[in-house]
Design brief:
The chain has helices at residues 13-24, 49-57, 61-67, 105-118, 163-168, 235-241, 247-255, 298-315, 320-350, 355-369; strands spanning 5-9, 28-33, 44-48, 69-71, 74-77, 83-87, 100-104, 124-125, 129-134, 139-143, 148-151, 153-156, 176-188, 196-199, 205-210, 215-223, 262-269, 277-278, 281-283. The chain is of the alpha/beta class and 373 residues long. The two termini are 26 Å apart. The model has no long low-confidence stretch (mean pLDDT 95). It binds flavin-adenine dinucleotide (FAD). Flavin-adenine dinucleotide binds at residues 9-15, 32-35, 45-46, 51, 128, 157-159, 163, 182, 265, 267, 285-287, 293, 296-300, 302.
Length: 373
């Protein structure tokens, strides 16, 4: 049985997970990232039960749980911090993971990166792909430094603005602004924040995710036309957006200092028609199915992509032509569920839909997501 030599383009959670899982089934992995100073921004990330299940499969759950917050459920509050409802975050007992969690992104990247390094994989930095040429039984890749390589499979895990996608599907839809900006700020965690918490019914969607025993992040989704903001002048507008909020959110607002690091990003998405491959080049993670963060599942989906890819590669006996349709059949419905439900929630938030309508979408989707991948 010939084991495929694979090039992975892009070292986010999707690329890292793919590298770990392919190496585990005996595939030779080359790994590149365009960023010469590879790393992750310091924002928090929510880890759903399915994301924690993926991290367990990747063999890093203990390392994650040593640093992260993990627990159960989501508290739904009004804008003044009064509890309205508790949502379950169910996971089957045999998944062996809590239903919910959160972590700072650099720590998540560091855990996955260490696992990759321990497996003997190196990431070459400051490098991208410039061209692909299909050969009779392989693919030739031309890199941005002029060198070339021959592979059985190329995995494009280079994010929402994927260059690999542009190379293989030049007429693919481009990411579109969905009408919302995400604001995130990391703050100290008081004891009363015992789980993920949403503050609904106000002008924005606001939430908190604990990321460790001592820290948490607050996020705010703002409906806004597309605008430019100076990165070092975000504190005052964020405080203004939070002006009507009381309770813990009001306390956080009053403690946001002008020089606090605030992450501010437009939300973008699009639906890429299937299949997410051409020839021997497959897109995974945000390159294939970028999603807005309403269900906090984009990174989880990218991790699952790597797990399913390795599993299907073994089932296909390392035959790429057999692998790719089988991979699509397993991944497309689940990723579409996430993207579709996240976009639906974004539209409901912008239309100021009722809390019941929005939490019903969250509960329905979370119940489906606990199914095995
Ligand atoms: C505001 C916001 C909040 C979010 N919150 C959550 C959350 O709480 N939980 C969750 O699960 N998901 C969340 N997501 C989604 C999550 O961030 C993404 O789904 C996830 O990061 C996708 O991982 P990826 O590996 O596919 O891509 P990325 O993380 O974007 O990584 C892409 C990598 O490719 C590299 N690269 C880019 N271009 C090239 C190129 N041409 N050549 C080589 N390398 C290249 C980049 O340097 C980068 O390392 C959020 C998204 C947003 C926008």
């Amino acid at each position: 049985m010939k084991k495929s030599k694979t090039l992975i383009v892009g070292g986010g959670v999707g690329g890292l997970s793919t590298a770990i899982m392919l190496q585990r089934v005996g595939v030779a992995v080359d790994f590149i990232d365009i960023d010469p100073h590879w790393g992750a921004l310091g924002a928090g990330i929510t880890l759903t039960g399915p994301s924690l299940r993926a991290l367990r499969e990747l063999g890093v759950l203990d390392e994650v749980m040593a640093q992260a917050y993990t627990g159960e459920g989501i508290r739904v509050c009004d804008t003044q911090g009064n509890t309205l409802k508790l949502l379950d975050t169910p996971m089957p007992a045999d998944a062996g993971v809590p239903g919910s969690g959160g972590m700072v992104r650099p720590a998540l990247h560091a855990v996955l990166h260490q696992k990759m390094v321990n497996a003997g994989i190196q990431m070459r930095l400051g490098l991208t792909v410039d061209a692909f040429k299909e050969l009779a039984d392989a693919i030739e890749v031309t890199f941005s430094d002029g060198s070339t390589g021959i592979y059985d499979l190329v995995v494009g895990s280079d994010g929402v603005n994927s260059k690999v996608r542009k190379l293989i599907i030049p007429d693919a839809p481009a990411p579109e602004y969905t009408g919302q900006y995400a604001w995130r700020v990391t703050v100290p965690r008081p004891k009363e924040i015992d789980r993920r918490t949403y503050f609904l019914g106000g002008p924005h969607k606001v939430g908190i995710t604990p990321t460790s025993d001592n820290e948490m992040y607050l996020f705010l989704l703002e409906k806004s036309p597309k605008i430019w903001r100076e990165a070092n002048a975000l504190a005052a507008p964020l405080r203004a957006l939070l002006k009507d909020y009381g309770g813990i959110v009001g306390q956080i607002r009053d403690n946001i200092k002008d020089d606090d690091y605030i992450n501010f990003r437009p939300l973008e998405g699009f639906i890429l028609p299937a299949p997410w491959y051409r020839g021997r080049v497959l897109l995974v993670g945000d390159a294939a199915h970028p999603t807005t963060p309403q269900l906090a599942s984009g990174a989880g989906m990218a991790m699952e992509d790597g797990i399913v890819l390795a599993d299907e590669l073994v089932k296909a006996q390392f035959d790429v032509a057999t692998l790719l349709p089988a991979y699509m059949a397993r991944r497309e419905p689940r990723c579409r569920l996430i993207v579709g439900s996240s976009m639906e929630l974004g539209r409901l938030e912008q239309a100021h839909a009722s809390i019941e309508t929005m939490t019903a979408v969250v509960e329905r989707t979370l119940a489906l997501l606990m199914e095995p991948i």
